[in-house]
Design a protein that fits this description.
This is DUF2325 domain-containing protein. Keywords: Coiled coil. It comes from Candidatus Ethanoperedens thermophilum. This protein is mainly alpha-helical. Helices cover 67% and strands 5% of the residues. The chain is built from 14 helices and four strands. The protein has a four-stranded parallel sheet, with helices on both faces. The chain is rod-shaped, with a radius of gyration of 53 Å.
């Protein structure tokens, strides 16, 4: 059995349903769709509302169409209205659902077809709500200077701002998690650095102990000589680090060539104990390489030369491993290069001598001193 149709409902019920369901724009649209005549006059909203109520009073094609329009409009809420909600509306004048009030009235009256008093009870409850709504509207009009409609706009703006704030809050929370993760990573890195420092300290202590042991086992003269060389190297490195730059290569070449011309090298005698010894000269001034070679070969040694440009540490180790003795000037080679050369020589067990300058005279004096020392050691071993 179908429920009440709109022309079967009381006029005050139809008035509430239409007034709550349609605004002025929708009323104009309904007039066009239902082809309701208004004699060409431009009706006000109140006049259109009253004429639409009159149309729905009798069973006509227009009222049937209006009944279909309302059924279609309120269809999504059908079946959601419960009897206890109707009782709450009648007894307490309020309901706690998300169903629009016109839809609630529509289905409540339709479902209570046998009860002719249900409409009066519902409208009586709604009548009190109408007074409350009018008082609220009046207070808003006075508070907002006759512009209460802006409340919804402000509420929508507030909701939009709140949504943006929530998005920003979520982004900040994610950023906080990222920062915490980075802090944890930094803490782990700090622990690794601490462990590495401890290992370096232990290795340093071990090296000190080995150095002390070597000093006790080495001849006093050699220790004294090595300390002198170390102090000399330290002074030279400090001087190099304090300078703003290294002299131009061409000027270095011209000055060293001048030294070669003004201070001719005395002819050295070949040392039979050093014949075939490979002497490596790393760095220096490349145009002076022929003078370095002539000096080394005058002692009967084989000369090996490398300009000192080694992008990889392994190349230095390979260079040092192919020689018997290494000379390295500190005025051309960088501090890091000298350090890598010294480390490679120590690993290979090859003597390494650092020169204060790349001049031929300095190289000759140092070579004579070291070859004499080496020759004396070989003689003592043979005896």
């Amino acid at each position: 059995m179908t429920g009440k149709r709109i022309w079967e409902m009381q006029p005050f019920t139809v008035c509430r349903i239409l007034g709550l369901a349609f605004n002025e724009m929708e009323l104009k649209k309904l007039f066009r769709e239902l082809k309701i005549s208004h004699n060409g006059d431009l009706l006000q909203a109140s006049a259109m509302h009253q004429q639409l109520i009159d149309v729905c009073t009798n069973k006509t094609q227009a009222s049937k169409n209006m009944d279909a329009v309302l059924n279609k409009r309120f269809e999504p809420y059908k079946g959601k209205i419960k009897n206890q909600d109707i009782v709450k509306l009648i007894e307490h004048g309020k309901i706690c659902t998300d169903i629009p009030l016109p839809a609630f009235i529509w289905f409540a009256v339709q479902d209570q077809r046998e009860d002719n008093n249900i409409e009066e009870q519902i409208i009586a409850a709604i009548h009190i709500k109408e007074h409350e709504a009018l008082r609220f509207y009046d207070e808003l009009s006075r508070t907002l200077h006759n512009n209460p409609e802006c409340v919804l706009s402000e509420l929508n703006n507030a909701i939009s701002v709140n949504e943006r704030l929530e998005k920003n809050l979520n982004r900040l929370k994610k950023r906080l998690e990222t920062v915490r993760s980075e802090m944890d990573t930094m803490k782990e890195g700090k622990l690794e650095i601490t462990h590495a420092l401890q290992e370096m300290q232990e290795s340093n202590e071990q090296l000190k102990a080995e150095t002390k042991k070597v000093e006790n086992e080495t001849a006093p003269e050699q220790i004294k000589y090595l300390k002198k060389e170390r102090d000399l190297l330290i002074r030279e490195v400090k001087q190099l680090t304090e300078k703003l730059g290294v002299e131009d290569t061409k000027s270095a070449v011209s000055e060293n060539e001048k030294d070669v011309e003004e201070m001719p090298i005395e002819e050295s005698k070949e040392c039979p104990y050093m014949r075939g010894v490979k002497v490596m000269y790393i760095g220096g001034v490349e145009p002076l390489a022929p003078h370095y070679r002539g000096l080394v070969e005058s002692f009967g040694c084989n000369f090996c030369y490398h300009p000192g440009h080694c992008p990889q540490k392994s190349e230095i180790r390979n260079i040092v491993g192919r020689t018997d003795m290494v000379f390295c000037p500190v005025d051309i080679n960088s501090h890091n290069a000298c350090r890598h050369i010294k480390k490679a020589c120590k690993q290979k067990g090859i003597p390494c001598f650092f020169l204060r300058s790349s001049g031929v005279t300095t190289f000759k004096k140092s070579l004579e001193d070291h070859l004499q020392f080496t020759a004396g050691s070989l003689v003592s071993q043979e005896s």
